[in-house]
Amino acid sequence: MTDYLVKAIDKTKNLRLLTITAKGVVSEAQKLQDTWSASSAVLGRTLVGGLLLAGAQLTDKEELTVRLLGNGPVGPTVVTAKADLTVKGYIKNPHIALPPKKNGHIDVKKAVGQGWFEVTKDLGLKEPYTGQVPIVSGEIAEDFAYYLTKSEQIPSAVGLSVFVNPNNSIGEAGGFMLQALPGASDELINKTIKRINALPALSTSFLDGMTPEDLARKILGTDCKILEKQDVAYKCDCSKEKYAKILETLDTKQLKDMINEDHGAELTCAFCGNKYSFNEDELKDILAKKKAEKD
């Protein structure tokens, strides 16, 4: 099944819901970074959450970056999602597998640890905006919801799921993001939360063939309206030109050392693993450009 995101609204038009299936997205990240179970679950949930947040908030050429800065064994996780619902991400320590919890599930909370949850939005303004809240759960879905509620004053409920097979491949991935609009009553919100709490495990439901449309109707009711459907994909937009600009930000001494001592440089993209080589002449051109801009 193709990865895609659905936007829906309840019959009262006071609740907005985004649902998503993203097995292909998470599988691509798993293959590119060779993640093991705990790392796959953390990176996968953050990728799915980033896509849901992008679908809820971005337009045109806007993008956002989610940083999960925990002190757990997986280390920091960074995900960038764009308005066109393409996403990329990396995790510092991809080879983390932990003993399962008593219920057999991956111990995502232990993998993440404590720290900060950040969202930076590039909305085409002079300076990107960054919101930061403490990691309150480590299960990631609750951390997205806490961020939205505390940092953006949008009462929200979020569910994220990644099922990792015994061989580390991805069995399924998906989730939802529910947002209360200004006219939503406490009664409507509570009724909907009860529906969410009564749902079977998301991973099990997706494995059984549940679609994003099915999930929307389970949460909002069968009389909800499906507004939009959009494909999502893992896509890295790295290029040699972008890495040349990164090299320009280094100080003059570092660039001279690369030229005189290393006789070149090779940079590796953390998101996709592509390597970009720069020879001495290319580094000299970058150094000359840096000096010209300074003058």
UniProtKB/TrEMBL annotation:
Entry PTM: Under oxidizing conditions two disulfide bonds are formed involving the reactive cysteines. Under reducing conditions zinc is bound to the reactive cysteines and the protein is inactive.
Entry keywords, A to Z: Chaperone, Cytoplasm, Disulfide bond, Redox-active center, Zinc
Biological process terms in GO annotation: protein refolding
Cited SUPFAM superfamilies: Hsp33 domain, HSP33 redox switch-like
Transmembrane segments: none
Subcellular locations according to the entry: Cytoplasm
Chief location of this protein within or outside the cell: cytoplasm
Residue pairs linked by disulfide bridges in the UniProt entry: 236-238, 269-272
KW Cytoplasm (keyword) present: yes
GO terms for MF: protein folding chaperone; unfolded protein binding
A Gene Ontology term for the protein's cellular component: cytoplasm
Taxonomy, superkingdom: Bacteria
Function: Redox regulated molecular chaperone. Protects both thermally unfolding and oxidatively damaged proteins from irreversible aggregation. Plays an important role in the bacterial defense system toward oxidative stress.
Similarity annotation: Belongs to the HSP33 family.
NCBIfam families cross-referenced by the UniProt entry: PRK00114.1 (NF001033)
Protein name: 33 kDa chaperonin
